[in-house]
Amino acid sequence: MLECRVLYFGDIIGKPGRNYVYQQLPALREQYRPDFIFANAENATHGFGLTLVTAQELHQHGIDGLSLGNHAWDQKSFWEEIDQLPYVCRPANFPENTPGRTILLQEYQGEKLAVINLLGRAGMRSSLDCPFQIGQKLLQTLQTQGVSNVLLDFHAETTAEKYALGWFLSSQGILAVLGTHTHVPTADERFLNPQTAFISDIGMCGPQNSIIGCKIDPIVERFLNGKPNKLEVAQGPCVLNAVFLRLDLEQHRALSIERIQRIED
Ligand SMILES: [Fe+2]
Ligand SMILES: [Fe+2]
User: For the CA atoms of 23, 25, 27, 33, what is the dihedral angle to 10 degrees?
Assistant: First the structure.
């Protein structure tokens, strides 16, 4: 057995989310002793998208890899910047010729571990290739290249699509399917088949007194009377949501999945 320990943070929201993650990292490192730390960073810059500078900051704080989602290009400069960042992967089912890598490869004691990212289509606005077919192809390509340890950040709206893709890719040997995007953690962490760790949504790292990380009143008004308010990252104490995975890279299976939550006073 070759045990590898992974910490994966759900969507980090703006500066409050980043700062709370940085503040909590030393204690989390001590408690979980992760070999790799990954995070969904699609909301890391002002709540919408990512920039080179924010990605570098997250990486300098010890986050080994960053995945994205539907907000990947909200900061327009990022389209030009992403190729400079070897530790960022974008959804693999964006149209062909989209910049950015689709696989993050890590080495651990002679074994390889890949992180991939896909976007769901149910209830999402963008036009995307099929996450099932693209995911299957990517997994098969990696497996034929000798990379049999693959984690997926599935950035999607509905639990049904998350379970469907989870079961589908589990039957093909994926080690973990971790949901992101809703910013709300689900309490359904479990195994699909004996080797695949699964959770519908990790939840966010961002302001607690908010609507999925954003200020409350502008969103309530949007629902109440359709006022086209701009959304802004909320302030105040944060919540941190993550999962901790133990993987066996020799037997190509997950060993455990644990939900982590920290709440700022
Ligand atoms: Fe998000
Ligand atoms: Fe999202």
Answer: -170
End-to-end CA distance of the chain: 40
Task: Report the run of H or E that residue 140 belongs to, with start and end.
Answer: helix 131-144
Q: What is the dihedral of CA 178, 179, 180, 185, to 10 degrees?
A: -100
pLDDT at 93 over 90: yes
71 is catalytic: yes
pLDDT at 255: 98
How many residues belong to the chain?
265
CATH class of 3-263: alpha beta
Residue 253 token pair = 């299976």
Q: Report CA(257)–ligand 2 centroid distance (Å).
A: 22
CA–CA separation, 182 vs 163, rounded Å? 15
Neighbours of 132 (CB within 10 A): 16
* Ligand located closest to 212 CA: 1
Confidence of residue 116 (pLDDT cuts 50, 70, 90): very high
pTM: 0.98
What's the gap in Å between 29 CA and the centre of ligand 1?
24
> Relative to the alpha carbon of 72, which ligand is closest?
2
Q: Which ligand is nearest to the CA of 40?
A: 1
Say how many Å lie between the CA of residue 103 and the centre of ligand 1.
Answer: 20
Q: How many CA atoms lie within 13 A of 183 on its CB side?
A: 23
All structural domains of the chain with their residue ranges: 3-263
Distance 183 CA to ligand 1 centre (A): 6
Kindly name the residue from 46, 61, 71, 181 that is annotated as catalytic.
Answer: 71
